[in-house]
Amino acid sequence: MSYIENNLNEVRTRIAEAARNCGRQTKDVTLIAVTKTYGVDVINEAIDLGVTDIGENRVQEIMEKYESVKPVRWHLIGHLQKNKVKYIIDKVELIHSVDSFELAREIDKHAKKHDKIQKILLEVNVSGEESKFGIRPQECEELCRNISELENVKIEGLMTIAPFVEDEKILEAVFEGLKKLSEDISAKGIKNVDMNHLSMGMTNDFQLAIAKGATMVRVGTGIFGKRDYTK
Ligand SMILES: *Cc1c(COP(=O)(O)O)cnc(C)c1O
């Protein structure tokens, strides 16, 4: 068994275990294999092993890899600049990192040109760390209402990145916070806004995130190993 096959099996087992432990179904949690810094051969190997969704955090990397990667759903999970929307609009299934109305409007504009309704998540900085992108939780409702007016953008849920800590209490509070926020928004019944998805949980914390309601987990290192940023 290859290194990646072995890792993938382990991640899938742990997803199934976390889902079972809280009475959820494995199929309700999508594994997004985070492929940043990895080459197309490795990515195609993962796809051959059944990976259906991959996540990249840089527009540039999506463009470099797109033609050589086998058919798969692409997710943009990193910060997106307005001037780069045009490069990825025809390529991505879901943009996880929308954090302003101006960005959503730019996405709407380009989605229109491609006759597409672009699905997005709003990135929320639940932990309040200054270094993080994302809106503050209290800004979420208003942003949802504003974006709901855009015809070619569809809000499908929320995304967060937990702080890089080991304290499970802190991590759980962040995941619970996002879940609670999505329930609050959902209860407002804003047209054209659905809270179907919670994108939360990475290699170190995806089981906790699943216990708190994650429907998408973004796992890189756990599948592909340590990233080499020197290349
Ligand atoms: C890199 C990255 C991940 C994956 O992180 P791992 O710890 O390697 O699993 C998840 N989400 C985002 C937004 C990332 O940039």
What does this protein structure show overall?
- The structure is a single chain.
- By secondary structure, the protein is α/β, with parallel strands linked by helices.
- The chain has one domain: TIM Barrel (Alpha-Beta Barrel), CATH 3.20.20.
- Helix content is about 40%, strand content about 20%.
- An 8-stranded parallel β-sheet has the order 7-6-5-4-3-2-1-8.
- It starts with a helix and ends in a 7-residue tail after the last helix.
- It binds pyridoxal-5'-phosphate.
Please compute the radius of gyration using only Cα atoms: 17 Å
CATH superfamily assignment? Answer: Alanine racemase
Measured as a percent range, the helix fraction is 25-40%
Described by strand count, sense and barrel closure, the largest sheet is: 8 strands, parallel
- Please give the alpha-carbon distance between the first and last residues: 27 Å
Task: List the helices and strands in order.
Answer: HEHEHEHEHEHEHEHEH
CATH topology: TIM Barrel
How many strands? 8
Which architecture does the CATH hierarchy give at level 2?
Answer: Alpha-Beta Barrel
Total count of domains: 1
Helix tally equals 9
Helical/strand content category = alpha/beta
Ligands present: pyridoxal-5'-phosphate
The coarse silhouette is globular
Q: In percent terms, what proportion of residues is strand?
A: 15-25%
The strand order across the widest sheet is 7-6-5-4-3-2-1-8
CATH class: Alpha Beta
